[in-house]
Specification:
alpha+beta, seven-stranded antiparallel beta sheet, 2 domains, globular, Transferase(Phosphotransferase), domain 1
Length: about 350
């Protein structure tokens, strides 16, 4: 399953910008996305096995480099220490990579601490309202938090730590050191989180798996890293990771490890947690709905298609009254809050 066509970027309009200012997400940045596009040269970035990563390492001229590097370390300080530039004294830019595919064509900045050679990453992207709504819903409805800032058509975003899903499936899924029941359980809960808030395109390379050692074995958390497809497509299955063929190995493992009753239990657990988070963040969530329900983040055709499919799925005609994708998402979440939410279980 693939998107019907390449998604367009949606401008951040004034109501959403006011929301971002209110909650500290809008800040003046010392450098913008377009500034980074003026690099002088680039080379393909290869992985440790010599394979092309589809990223390019870019290089700036000798005259531009000091100014660019200073701005980038300052931006990292904005993300990590709310702008306390004292931490930037020991930081430098080790590498700047440019992604040649994807909607936002991000730059990935590798920051290194000169005192201990420890490194971290952050991203500079073209601002997209869809991604902003996706990040906000991640903050409010999931167990995860992602720090990001917006300035005009530029957004910066922290790196989300974890093993890329496709690598985890290929290299770790069958490992005897990992509890496969726990992995299958987490995928059920991840599938639920995506469908409730209508985050689409969760193929294996669009999420990571965070592995946390515990007193008995390891715990697993699947985290989305691509929020561009927040409530844009019109097909219901697009919002269910279980239907992407790239995730089939986890689905097959889950069918071996879990029965239908257990899957239903985990779904109910996750919906209950989402409902608790929604109630705990009601003021901020209501402010987000005011923006999202009036914003145009998809086409009328896709909105009508998804509303109709969800009305059939939930056997609830409330979706047929939705005018925008924001209203579709809000209606979907309201079913969770009303404990009237039905979900499909893989056969």
């Amino acid at each position: 399953m693939i998107p019907s066509r390449k998604k367009v970027l949606f401008r951040i309009y004034e109501p959403l910008l006011r929301y971002l200012r209110r909650y500290g997400r809008a800040r003046a940045l010392p450098l913008h996305y377009e500034d980074l596009t003026r690099y002088e040269s680039s080379t393909p970035l290869l992985d440790q096995n010599g394979r092309d990563t589809l990223w390019e390492t870019v290089y700036f001229s000798e005259s531009d480099r000091p100014e660019v590097f200073l701005a980038l370390t300052s931006m990292y300080a904005l993300l990590k220490t709310d702008g306390d530039l004292s931490v930037a004294e020991h930081l430098t830019v080790a590498r700047i990579d440019y992604c040649t595919f994807g909607n936002t064509k991000p730059f990935r900045i590798r920051i290194i601490n000169r005192l201990n050679d420890n490194y971290d990453h952050f991203y500079i992207k073209r601002a997209d309202a869809s991604r902003v709504y996706g990040l906000e819903l991640e903050e409010l409805l999931s167990p995860n938090s992602v720090m990001y800032l917006v300035d005009g058509i530029t957004m910066i975003e922290e790196h989300i730590v974890g093993i890329p899903g496709d690598e985890f499936i290929a290299d770790h899924l069958s490992s005897q050191s990992f509890n496969q029941v726990r992995i299958a359980k987490e995928f059920v809960k991840f599938n639920e989180r995506c469908f409730v808030r209508l985050l689409g395109d969760m193929r294996a390379y669009n999420y990571v798996v965070a592995v946390t050692p515990d007193i008995e074995g390891s715990q697993f958390r699947m985290r989305a890293i691509d929020f561009d497809q927040q409530s844009y497509e019109g097909r219901k299955r697009f919002y269910l990771p279980q239907y992407f063929k790239e995730n089939n190995p986890i689905i097959e493992m889950g069918m071996r490890c879990l029965n239908r009753e257990t899957v239903a239990q985990y779904q109910l657990e996750e919906r209950s947690l989402i409902a608790m988070r929604a109630r705990a963040t009601k003021t901020r969530l209501d402010a987000l709905w005011q923006c999202m329900t009036e914003d145009e983040i998809s086409t009328p055709e896709k909105t009508a298609m998804l509303a109709e499919e969800l009305a059939q799925h939930h056997e609830n005609d409330a979706f047929l009254k939705c005018r925008t994708m924001g209203e579709v998402v809000m209606t979907n979440l309201n079913l969770v809050l009303q404990k009237d939410f039905r979900q499909s279980i893989p056969a």
